[in-house]
Design a protein that fits this description.
This protein has 251 residues and is α+β, with helices and mostly antiparallel strands. The chain contains eleven helices and 13 strands. The N terminus is likely disordered.
Length: 251
């Protein structure tokens, strides 16, 4: 009886071992396919995450050109004070494409984030200069971004020649208090149309008139906006952006 039990136990163990050995190649195959699938998913996730488009129309039509990589270089703190929101230089390690990104491209996309090229953006005959600024979608076909105040209000009545002369050498001689003041002059701008025949993209500042139209159906948020009595403080980005986010217009 004991011998019979020993034989039975040995037979069962042998059977299990043979079964396990037969399953080993199958398990190895499953592991191989799992690794392969994981690698494929990783490639799919990375592919198409770095892109650029040449125009506002391309942006609206979701027409993007893919890039192998994308590098962002942020300006120094001192430069940020003077350049406002366009604080990013974008490159991709390919000189012909880098030239396009510098002046010709309308925007780049880094995963889900959009950065707009400020080079061709104009407001009241002024422009921001070189660099990219982070933007958000607003509505169906527009972009909103934050940058320093430019235009007639920023010039304070100065003519263009005087203003740009100060802009060229002012950073070297202006006081720290002036730099901090410029940092506080951040407002919101909207892009809702493409370039004209000269290549200029005219943008709009979010002011009382524009925000009243945008919040026309939301009396509560409109009252919140006008709770601030002074217009210069009302249009400040730190006030406008939270209200527009509450409205659901910013995506």
């Amino acid at each position: 009886m004991v011998v019979k039990e020993i034989i039975s136990t040995f037979a069962t163990q042998t059977k299990n071992k043979v079964k396990k050995d037969c399953l080993l190649p199958i398990r190895m195959k499953k592991r191989f396919y799992f690794v392969l699938l994981t690698a494929f998913v990783a490639v799919v996730n990375v592919s198409g995450q770095y892109r650029y488009c040449l125009s506002y129309q391309d942006f609206c039509n979701n027409k993007w050109e893919e890039l192998d990589n994308l590098h962002f270089t942020q300006r120094t703190k001192n430069e940020q004070m003077w350049w406002g929101g366009n604080v990013f230089t974008v490159t991709c390690d390919k000189e012909p494409i880098d030239k396009i990104l510098k002046k010709q491209a309308f925007a780049v996309m880094y995963y889900d984030s959009i950065y707009v090229n400020c080079y061709n953006l104009w407001f009241q005959d002024d422009r921001f200069g070189k660099g990219y600024v982070k933007a958000r979608r607003i509505g169906n076909r527009s972009l909103i971004f934050v940058n320093r105040t430019i235009g007639q209000e920023a010039r304070g009545g100065q003519n263009m020649a005087t203003f740009f002369m100060f802009g060229a050498i002012g950073a070297a001689i202006a006081s720290a208090s002036d730099s901090k003041r410029l940092m506080k002059q951040q407002v919101c701008y909207i892009i809702s149309k493409g370039a004209d025949e000269k290549g200029r993209i005219e943008i709009r500042m979010v002011n009382d008139d524009l925000i009243s139209k945008m919040l026309n159906d939301n009396g509560e948020l409109l009252r919140e906006y006008y709770d601030e009595e002074e217009e210069k403080l009302r249009i400040h980005a730190s006030r406008v952006m939270p209200i527009l986010q509450k409205s659901g217009l910013i995506k």
